Amino acid sequence: MVNLISGTAPPSTPVRGLKGVVLIVACALVLVPFLAVLSTSLADQQQITSSGGYVLFPHDPSFAAYEAIFRGGVVTRATIVSVLLTVVGSGLSIVVVVSIAYSLSRPGTWGQRPLLFIVLFTLLFSAGIIPNYLLIKELGLIDSYWALILPGLTSAFQIIIVRAFFLDVPAEIIDAARIDGANELQILTRVMLPLSKAVVAVVGLFSAVGYWNAYFNAILYINSPEKWPLQLVLRTYVVDNTQVGGDLPGEVMPPQQSLQMAILVVSLVPICLVYPFLQKHFAKGVVLGAVKG
Amino acid sequence: MTLVLQRKTVARSNQRTQKTLSGRQRFRRDRFLLLIGLPGILLLVLFHYVPLLGNVIAFKDYAPYLGITEAPWAGLDNFRVIVDGDPDFVNALVNTLVISFVQLVLVFPVPIALALLLNSLLSERLKRVAQSILYLPHFMSWVIVVAIFQHMLGNAGLYNTWARAHDLPLLTIIGNPDLFIPLITSQVIWKDAGWSTIIFLAAMSRVDTQLYESVAVDGGGRWRQLWHVTLPAIRPVIVLLLILRLGDVLSVGFEQIFLQQGPVGLDASEVLDTYVYNRGIVGGNWGVAAAVGLVKGLIGTILVLGANKVAHLFGERGVYSKW
């Protein structure tokens, strides 16, 4: 059979075989760890003892580990903290990014070039750990959740992507809305946003992933362990291997490995849920950022 | 990624600028629009520009109880660690450069090879499935990635328990200072090699298929197509990303390395960013840490700007263009 696109015969069998092997190995390297994590979180003590620690296929899946971590202890609290940080952070981030992008998206407005420069210039430097810490301290935000939310609200990259979409909205539509008596805010919420739902959703999801995954800002700014987000709890129990203890004395706990892997699963499930959407749209976003121009 | 302020846009805005209006008239006309953006811009300035002022403590003998303004001036004393070559600082600098170099050589080519492989797949469906799987780790936090590596490859991890049961050689990569660089390098590849293929695949997808046909007409096989069409097509992207990577040579995965410093020790794992944290926020040497951070930031910015200049010289667009 001749390959229609390139006009040459398909590769020979050894080449195809080699490619297949490389591809399968690459995919297995990604999938097997996730499978082991998930399966171990569902395994019971007996199977974990007999397999020496980790299982790839649970005989008799049990949710005991999940019940244990969601009984209202450290992990439960951290999950709630992380969910709230993520929802509030990405919600506010959408508002901020969209409003900046919109105000810089109308050709020929006053002060646009210097303002745009201020936004773009942030891509070239970052102040560093110490100055950022001092700012949060001077603002009195140490140990406050706002220290984890506010600094991440304004991303120049996201502003540029949203602005690029707004720029592509035909000026006639905006003019028409204005003739109908709409003010700037109404044009933004009733005309621009409905037209750019997809990009706004993607930008929101990306900042949601950022908020969900952040851990170092909490190490820097949060002193009270009860305010820890999930990633820090994950670090303590799963990376540093601190014993996952029962919060109630004398309680029989599921095996450590199952508990650890269950915490890990909880921290990666939200990402997996939004992943199909991210993948579909963001591949476009990267290409847009790179290619447009 | 490349963030080009679009020329098209600028052209359009120039053309639409109403020359008949004075600055004040335009300000009056646009004031509501500007008002919408104002809170966001203020936040951006507060969290990106205002912290730069904090660098002043690089020239002070700062202590938290004194506060920034009360702390006595220290001249350039804090920069002595850099000039005199304090052993801890030199260790961090050397580690940073070595890790950067190793990752440039080992990490950079992987997504190119992977993209070529994906691009050569005849089945569109297979390609999409493989992409979906390979992109996934990019979205996992470093805590998750490090946790997974420890539990797969650690002493009591999945591989070693299995190898012990079957009398196979054990892996001692986790917590081993000698293998720290291979470990973090493989983590970077595992996490981001798939995702990094996107930009190369995008470049490959824009190749005119007639070029492949003409190679075929001239009697060239798939290797010739690869060599004479595909690789030249992605060369600009390769050059650009390589130059950008060079501009970023002083930054190596801070979050990733920070998580794993405990077991391997600072000799093997201290890099400039962790040095700033450990020396300043943990060790209380605020001024010194700020000085090192400031110098690193300045050199980093100069390198990025320089890299961009070089990209222009190579005829590429760079991260930003003149506009």
- What percent of residues of chain B are in strands? under 5%
Low-confidence stretches of chain A: 289-293
Would you tell me the overall average pLDDT of chain B?
Answer: 87
And the CATH topology of chain B? MetI-like fold
Considering the protein shown, what is the CATH homologous superfamily of the largest domain in chain A? MetI-like
CATH class of chain B: Mainly Alpha
Spatial gap, N to C terminus of chain B:
18 Å
| Helical percentage of chain A | 55-70%
| Relevant CATH superfamily of chain B | MetI-like
* CATH class membership of the largest domain in chain A: Mainly Alpha
Report on this structure.
- The complex is a heterodimer of chains A (293) and B (323).
- Chain A has 293 residues and is mainly alpha-helical.
- Chain A folds into two domains: 1-62, no CATH class; 65-291, MetI-like fold, CATH 1.10.3720.
- Chain A has helices spanning 13-42, 45-51, 64-69, 74-103, 112-121, 129-138, 146-149, 156-167, 171-179, 184-195, 197-213, 216-221, 230-239, 256-291.
- The longest helix of chain A is centred in the last third of the chain and has 36 residues, at 256-291.
- Chain B is mostly helical and 323 residues long.
- Chain B has one domain (85-313): MetI-like (MetI-like fold).
- Helix content of chain B is 69%, strand content 0%.
- Chain B has helices spanning 7-16, 23-53, 80-84, 87-106, 109-120, 124-135, 142-153, 158-165, 180-205, 209-217, 222-247, 254-259, 261-264, 266-269, 272-282, 286-313.
- Classes of the chains: A mainly alpha (293), B mainly alpha (323).
- Chains A and B meet through helix 1, helix 4, helix 5, helix 6 and helix 8 of A and helix 1, helix 2, helix 5, helix 6 and helix 7 of B.
